[in-house]
Amino acid sequence: MASDYTCTLKEETLQLAIKELNENPKTRILEVKAFRERILQYTGLQPRTDTEFLLRFLRARKFDQERAFQLYLSYYRMRKEDPKIFTGLKPSCVRHMYQSAMSFPHTHRDREGCQIYLIFPGRLDTSHYTIEEAFKVEFLNVNKMIEDEENQVRGFTLLIDYRDFSMSHFMMMNFDFAKRVSKLWQDAFPARFKACLLVNVPSFVDIVITLFTQFLKSKLAQRVHNIGSDWKKLHEYIDPSCLPVDYGGTLPGLPTNESWVEEMMKCDEKMEKESKFGFVDDTLGKDSDRKQQDAITNMYCIPVLLLENISPVINIVIIVIVVVVIIIIIISSSSSSSNSRSSISLLYTGTAGS
């Protein structure tokens, strides 16, 4: 199947792929072939195996065959285990969500060449739409953007503007949502998320952001930056010429999403074909390695598993309790440190006096 692929990377991006992702143009097709053969040997799976698709996973895991294989399986497990999100998933089914312009790609890239992805959570009409519908749009958008090989190599920078984000939006979020989102973007999707920039963040959202980052691996958590309205800080990541005046930039305004919506509405047939791939039985590939991995994951996620079905109100109460406990620990630690320093000072004074 080598003939089904033609590399579209720019020369500069290709050199970046060679340096950062261990991609070798001379052996690329052989790597894909080995990856494909392993996938085809896996029972209970109806896989998509074209070269362009498989390269997404290899690049996302720096051409580490084992890690790319686990990511590939996780991608299809996710689709099987969350039918509420992925059954019948296609753009036309959430056309109403696209009309709200809640999220779409920017026409510019950041200083590192990453695709800027604009997200406006406050535009979600909580009286009519659900968090699952919003989740569908995010998956469809990123799934479309990752078709661009430049994005596979350079990755994404998320610019999330919390303007108009209210308590009604806050109440829609819970531990289950946080777990699902983190699981998708970290462990089950072939994309490189290089930075997450948060602007216009209300004070009551700070707690949620802090707790949400606890679900992220340390490397990804370090890429989440609460910019607030510090536009100078934002400009370290994105040049002012690519930003509107509202963000301290020079553009008259952000781009609209009309052309993006038009492009997405043409993807129904492609998504219908995509839905035919995946696990075809109930095993979900749960071999001994998977069971061992699940056991380890669950051991560290017991609080999440216990809280995932609790109502938003109780979630908020729990969040407040957790924050209070953290504050008490910090104060106690600070007090202990202060007492320790005082004791050392007294000991030193007494010794000097004698």
Q: What report would you give on this structure?
A:
The chain has 354 residues and is an alpha/beta fold. The chain has two domains: 11-81, N-terminal domain of phosphatidylinositol transfer protein sec14p (Helicase, Ruva Protein, domain 3); 85-275, Phosphatidylinositol Transfer Protein Sec14p. The protein has 18 helices and seven strands. The protein has helices spanning 11-20, 28-40, 51-60, 65-81, 83-86, 95-98, 131-145, 149-154, 167-172, 175-187, 206-212, 218-221, 231-234, 258-264, 268-274, 288-300, 302-307, 312-353, and strands at 45-46, 103-109, 115-119, 156-161, 193-199, 224-228, 278-279. The strands form two sheets. It has a five-stranded mixed beta sheet. The radius of gyration is 23 Å and the shape is globular. The N and C termini lie far apart (86 Å).
